[in-house]
Amino acid sequence: MKRSEINAHVHAAEAFFQKHHFHLPPFSSWTPEDWSHKGPEADAIRALGLGWDVTDLGKGHFEEEGLILFTLRNGHALDPADPKTYAEKIMISGANQVTPWHFHWHKTEDIINRGGGDLVVTLAWATDDEAHLSSREVCVTCDGVERHLPAGGDLVLTPGESVTLPPKLYHQFHGHREAVLVGEVSRTNDDHADNRFLEPLGRFPAIEEDEAPYRYLCHEYPQ
Ligand SMILES: [Fe+2]
Description:
Helix content: 10-25%
Number of helices: 3
Oligomer: single chain
Largest sheet: 9 strands, antiparallel
Shape: globular
Bound molecules: fe (ii) ion
Radius of gyration: 17 Å
Distance between the termini: 23 Å
CATH architecture: Sandwich
């Protein structure tokens, strides 16, 4: 992705969060200049990958397949001594913008429609070799109520509704005709090692630097 494109998406996301009265923590507005003065006091932000995350999954057509995320909190996934066993993200799933099929080996996550349009979540179990979608029926919990779906079936979450996605349940989602403010509450998050995409994809985009960054993405902080 071009840096100018990423900058424009972060600007638009800030406006979208504001419109939905979702307030981000102070480090969301730190500039690269601010980061040049940050020392070890901000190590948790670097180490846990908190902050902005804009991705086209390496496919080069962000409007059709992509996602804007902001990781608000996270723990050390590999450290059993870390009492912070949870993570939270806020995301924007654009109108008809698909986050492609993937599952997580470790992370159980609740995907929450926090406002905007309806969120369509499509679900199927992974086969044992993880390479395909199984034809097995899907049973998930939505806000404390079990729901049964055929393999590859759509769940439509209206604002306020959520679904719990256990490990190895393939999911893809998109905003139905309108952008959706999507929450994620989960076990600790490791985007470098805990995403199994159905088709091989890049989790983070390659970036062409055609202008200065407005915000660093979560994988770009100077160490
Ligand atoms: Fe996921």
